[in-house]
Structure formats: C-alpha cells, structure tokens
Amino acid sequence: MPLTIVRNDITKMDCDAIVNAANNTLLGGGGVDGAIHRAAGPELLAECRTLGGCDTGRAKITNGYRLPAKYVIHTVGPIWQGGGHGERELLASCYRESLRLAVENGCKTVAFPLISAGVYGYPRAEALRVAMDTCSDFLMEHDMMIYIVVFDRGALLVSEKLFADIRSFVDDNYVERHEDNNRKRLFGLFGARKESAMPAAEAMHNAEAAKADFEECSMMAESAFHGAALPTSLVNAINQIDESFSQMLLRKIDEKGLTDAQCYKKANIDRKLFSKIRSDVNYKPKKITVIAFAAALELTIDETRDMLMKAGFALSHSSKFDIIIEYFISHGRYDIIEINEVLFEFDQPLIGG
Ligand code: ADP
Predict the structure, then answer these.
(1) How far apart are alpha carbons 336 and 342 in whole angstroms?
(2) Is residue 86, in this structure, part of any structural domain at all?
C-alpha cells in the first residue's frame, strides 16, 4: 500500500527517512521534534547547527544517527492562524519539499508525523487531509512507500458529521453473529434448538436455493438453444459466471476507460502487486485489495459483492469493516483517502495492497 496511516511513535519507524516537524531554528524543540532529537542523540543537534535554520514550507535533510531511519528530513510547518493566511499551501509545500529531498537521496520509504497539528494548532482532520492529498498526488508520479504516523488518540481525524453518520450506520447494521431471516424462519419450522437444528436446516435451504438457480440457468440455456433472443446483457452475464477475479478486474478497467496505472494508483495499490494480478489469471488477492479496486472502479454494491465473491470473500454485517465499506460504496462515495481515514478512525484495517 503506497500510502498508509499508522499509529506509532515516529522515532521507532524503520524507514529510509522520517520527517521532523521542526521550527525555523532547527535547533530542537518540544513535541515530535524533541522526541526525534532525544532518540537520535546529540550528533543530530550538532549537524542541525550547521544548516542555518529553515523557512516555513521548506525542508532540509540530515543523518538519522541513533534512529532506525537513515535520514531525518526537517521541515517547518505553518502556525495555524485561522486558515486565511496561506496555511494550507505552506503545509502542502512541507510535504512536497520533504518528498523531493527524499527522492534526491534515494529514499524508498518515508514516514511523516502530522506536521503543524500539535503546538502549531492546525486542526487535525484538516492537517491529515492535506497530508494525504499531497502525498497521494506525489505518488501519481513516483514509486515510494509513505507512512503518515499518528501518535496520539484525541481529536477526530475525520469530520464530526461523517463520523456520526457512519457510527449510526454501523450501529443500525451491526449484528453480533450473522443470523439472517431464512435461518430464523427455518428455526421456527424445525422448532428445535438452534445449535442442533441449524446445520440440517441450513443445508436444506442451500440445496433448495441451488436447485432453483440450476433450474433457472437450464431454462435460460434452453431458450438460447432454441434461438430465442436473449438480451446481450444477459448473455454477457452468463459468460461471466466463470470469470476469475483477475479477468473481472481487467474487464472492468477496460469498461471504465481507465489505464492500468490510473486504476492501481487510484486504488492505492503498488505497481508490482498489480503486475502479479495481471499476469496470473487465478491470482487470489486479499480482501482489502479487492475492495480498493472496487472503490477505484466505482463499482456498485452488487458489482462489489460479485468481485469479492470471485476472490472468495463476502460483505457481512458481523464485521464493522464490512459495514463501513458498504456505507461508502452504497452511498457512491469512492474516495479511497476518505475511506481509509474513516477506517483508521474506527481502528480497522485500511484498503489498498
Ligand atoms: P508542530 O509544532 O508542527 O505542531 P508538534 O510536535 O507539536 O509539531 O506536533 C506535530 C504532530 O506530531 C502532533 O500531531 C503530535 O501529536 C505528533 N507527535 C508528537 N510526538 C510524536 C511522536 N513521537 N511520533 C509521532 N508523532 C508525534
């Protein structure tokens, strides 16, 4: 997953570079700056003294010394003054300039804290948005693994309204254990204890459903043989029954008029993973990968279920992750950054691959 949010102490990140939310002097301070200097040791301050400070929105690089990271990129975020003083552009510039230095120094993995979102007062949700948008724009042109490291729990990372909407959607739909109406009906029919009646009842129900499907397919096949004109969409649907996940993905990319690169970048999928999927017709992806493609391709909820099924997965109401995904897809909201911000806020795995 080229861009991801993690909860961690940035000084522990084993990346090529970590980014420091420094001040203009570059001579150390509180917050993440203090933590980085403490973990890196006094040699870091000695090197910083030679740099002559740094302007807001710019960045400078040093060694990482005792840190697991090889480099520290020091950038100076804007102080929040209400949003009307160019704060957004300056903050975006911090991310861009840091990434430019990372590329120049051959870094492949970089971790950022939420710059300006501490003592400098930038609202956290907005600071995260700037971070995610700027990094994802950068990733359209570069191969890199970027971590946005969130340290503390506290103020929301998504808007209050979105958080409240999703929380009530989850509350309305979450079931401890999946119990659909058919099961309930069958328990009633058999009048037996749940545990013992269930397997037999369920097996019978499944057999009935399979029989009905089979009969429907036979009828369709028969009418096809007899020359009855089936609608093209139905013929396509029949042809697609045996399609694998990889075949469905490539077909959908074509249907949507996207290039492969547009699709996997939008899906937050790394190029190497996409090539594997492309070259292996029977590739078995992870669920988070399938969902990322479904969102990037803006599939409907039924198409999403279909694509998941081809990879052996389903969406269930006994999983918060699945309900959150269902919320976004069924509301036609396909912004992967937003989906991941919400998943992170709800302590769920992020989508991508
Ligand atoms: P700024 O002055 O740019 O606001 P701060 O250091 O005060 O910088 O805070 C920036 C962000 O870094 C805040 O969201 C804060 O919670 C976070 N932070 C503080 N310590 C760490 C740490 N050790 N690892 C990661 N993030 C941290």
Answers:
(1) 10
(2) yes
Same-domain status, 189 and 335? no
Pocket test for ligand 1, best of 110, 151, 157 (most atoms within 8 A of CB): 151
Same domain? For 117 and 222 the reply is no
pLDDT tier, 296 (very low <50, low <70, confident <90, very high otherwise): very high
pLDDT of residue 189: 47
Q: Is the separation of the CB atoms in 148 and 3 below 8 Å?
A: yes
The verdict on 56 and 124 lying in the same domain is yes
Region 274-298: what's the mean pLDDT?
98
Domain shared by 46 and 110, yes or no = yes
User: In this structure, which residue's CA is closest to atom 18 in ligand 1?
Assistant: 32
CA of 139 to the centre of ligand 1 (A): 24
Task: Identify the H or E element spanning 188.
Answer: helix 181-190
Tens of pLDDT along 189-202?
444 444 444 455 55
Q: What is residue 109's three-state secondary structure?
A: strand
**CB atoms inside a 10 Å sphere around CB 222:** 10
How wide is the angle at C-alpha 98 spanned by C-alphas 260 and 56, nearest 5°? 135
How far apart (Å, rounded) are the C-alpha atoms in residues 135 and 3? 7
Q: Is residue 162 part of a domain?
A: no
* Length of the chain, in residues: 353
pLDDT of residue 152: 85
Nearest to 98 by CA among 63, 66, 61: 61
What is the rounded distance in angstroms from the CA atom of residue 253 to the CA atom of residue 56? 42
Encode pLDDT of 164-188 as tens digits.
Answer: 999 999 999 999 755 555 555 554 5
Statement to judge: residues 205 and 68 lie in one domain: no
Question: What's the confidence (pLDDT) of residue 218?
Answer: 55
Judgement on whether residues 22 and 57 belong to the same structural domain of the protein: yes
User: How many domains, in total, are found in the chain?
Assistant: 3
Q: Which residue has the higher pLDDT, 4 or 184?
A: 4
Q: Which domain holds residue 30?
A: 3-157
Final residue in a domain of this structure, among 157, 190, 216: 157
Confidence check: pLDDT of 226 > 60? no
Among protein residues, the one whose CA lies closest to atom 19 of ligand 1: 32
